[in-house]
Specification:
Strand order of the largest sheet: 3-1-2-6-7
Order of helices and strands: HHHHEEEEEEEH
Structural class: alpha/beta
Shape: globular
Number of domains: 1
Largest sheet: 5 strands, mixed
Helix content: 25-40%
Number of strands: 7
């Protein structure tokens, strides 16, 4: 006896298009939420990097009796002359990024005898994950953070090697009120090429690769931290603090705490937060 088969009705083209449209709408609603979660995770990772750097500054200070130095150019040559041109004998002129390596669990790099190996040794916590991957750029490892040199290069927390070595007690305006290390502004289309990103992270000499100032070099209309959106065809450095985060930069204060400083803050208030001993009040709520 032949069995009868029930008629199976498939999707019509219109029904299929409706399902596809619903899926597309759901994906459209989900992607921003996923991106927000990813951005928040990257921002938290960046904050953790600065927390480790801040603690390393303090541990270095406890061990050496001073804060890390900012390096200098070989034989006091102009800033345009690479400090890494002169071999291992000039390691004493390398910057804070070199000095704190043993305090961020990177003793293996610090013990390397080859300069070229050090230059190519990637330190993950020196990279902000929102900006770029921790990899070589222009054949050398980089750093996305810079020490605070005040508003004139000599009244911040980071000092040029060969000048006065600072202690925490030199920060007269209060450790929690004074920026120690912050994110640096870079040209996103010139990574590894611009003047403030073209040398190895340990050996640029005393220049904007490893220090930033409160005001000098900030773009027109912005005398504080700025978003990393500038693109250009030249390789000039930017000098200012900045970030690829959406709301502001992460900064390690001199007490080791990490806070967000919004873009384009009150310029005078930000300047005060970068100068260690002007004895002026800093409004942290203004950030």
């Amino acid at each position: 006896m032949q069995r009868s088969h029930a008629h199976r009705r498939g999707f019509t083209l219109i029904e299929l298009l409706v399902v596809i449209a619903i899926i597309a709408i759901l994906i459209g609603l989900l992607l921003p939420a996923v991106q927000k979660v990813r951005d928040a995770s990257d921002r938290a990772t960046c904050q953790n990097h600065l927390k480790q750097i801040g603690l390393a500054f303090h541990n270095f200070h406890d061990s050496q009796g001073r804060l890390p130095m900012g390096g200098k150019n070989a034989d006091d040559s102009p800033a345009s002359t690479p400090a890494n041109c002169c071999g291992p004998s000039k390691r004493s002129e390398w910057s804070w990024t070199w000095e704190i390596l043993p305090y961020i669990e990177q003793s293996a790099i610090a013990q390397q005898t080859s300069d070229s190996v050090v230059y190519r040794s990637i330190v993950k916590i020196y990279y902000c994950p929102t900006r770029r991957m921790p990899q070589l750029y222009g054949s050398s490892a980089k750093v996305d953070y810079a020490g605070n040199a005040g508003d004139n290069g000599s009244n911040g927390v980071l000092m040029r090697t060969g000048t006065r070595a600072l202690k925490l007690t030199s920060i007269k305006d209060g450790l929690s009120n004074t920026v120690m290390v912050g994110e640096k502004r870079l040209k996103l289309d010139r990574l590894g090429q611009s003047f403030d990103d073209n040398e190895a992270y340990v050996a640029p000499g005393w220049d904007s690769e490893i220090y930033r100032r409160a005001i000098t070099g900030a773009p027109a209309g912005s005398r504080g931290p700025s978003l990393d959106l500038e693109t250009s065809t030249d390789d000039n450095g930017l000098n200012a603090f900045g970030s690829s985060h959406g709301t502001g930069i992460n900064a390690a204060m001199s007490d080791g705490s990490v806070r967000i400083i919004r873009y384009d803050p009150d310029p005078e208030n930000f300047r005060r937060a970068c100068v260690r001993d002007d004895k002026l009040i800093v409004d942290l709520n203004g950030f």
